UniProtKB/TrEMBL annotation:
Signal peptide: none annotated. The chain crosses the membrane at residues 35-58, 189-209, 242-265, 277-307. One of its GO terms (cellular component) is plasma membrane. Keywords: Cell cycle, Cell division, Cell inner membrane, Cell membrane, Membrane, Transmembrane, Transmembrane helix. Gene3D superfamilies: 3.30.70.3040. Residues 192-306 form the ABC3 transporter permease C-terminal domain. Part of the ABC transporter FtsEX involved in cellular division. It is a multi-pass membrane protein. One of its GO terms (biological process) is cell division. The lineage of its organism: Bacteria, Pseudomonadati, Pseudomonadota, Gammaproteobacteria, Thiotrichales. This is Cell division protein FtsX.
Amino acid sequence: MGAKYHQSGSFLGSLMGHHKEAIVYSLAKLWQSNLSTWITLAAIAIALCLPASLHLLLQNLKSLTDDKREVPTISLFIKQDISEQRARDRGELLEELSQIDKVVLVPRDEALKDFRKITGFAETLETLDENPLPHVLVVTPHINLIGNPEEDMEKLAAKLNTYPEIDLVQMDIEWVRRLRSILRIAERAIFVISALLALTVLLVIGNTIRLNIENRKEEIKVSKLIGATAAYIRRPFLYTGVWYGLFGGVMSLVLVHLALLWFVGPVNELARLYGSTFVISGLSVATTFFILFASSLLGLVGAWIAVGSHLRSTKLEE
């Protein structure tokens, strides 16, 4: 039992030593080929920068709904026999709900004045004994485009329709539907662009590793002659691919945030001119780690394909 444990420990120690050696060796090779390394990293960073920037743009567009004037409204038509004060009281109670941001009362007299201004029926309205228009509560709901705003608004409208003062509920939901459709198209476009650029990164890293293999072909042959396994030969190239992907991802994040800093001033000025509290946001921690993980994985896969192709070709030659 002790002998088996000792053998297992020796194997793990040897494996860890090989990995450490491959890590140091691959980093040293990257540092030695300074110019070519930076060119490759720049190509990877630019390819990764575009989908990350588009994702960031989409997230900021979604967050624009925090500007309450951009949110669609729900009009609550009050029953004719309800007084203005009672309608105002109901509006104040509704404003306390978490699903509602603001409630504005439009009294029937004010609505009649506006109606006279925008229509040609002023003389006809004078012949009426009483104002036919009801009081209206204009409700601005709190919605989130990342979830399901249409369903949220429909649930809120159904809830509002249960109050005894309310005669009719009318939703301005077409705005939400159109914006949701635009955002869905944008999300799919970003997915397609990301997939194509991920393939580009895969090809760039794969071709770079293939060139590295060609430059070290004689070294690989000598390693095989002294008994090196395929895993031993493959390992430093795989780490090289991971480094290309990881460092390229880091560079892409730096580029995205530099571009973001360049836009902060003009965006804040535009928001101030429109009286908005909108603040441009950067990539979240989760998105940052996902980009680094995805870029490293692309580097690993690209290197694996390139090394695997070389190992298969050398076996066929033999």
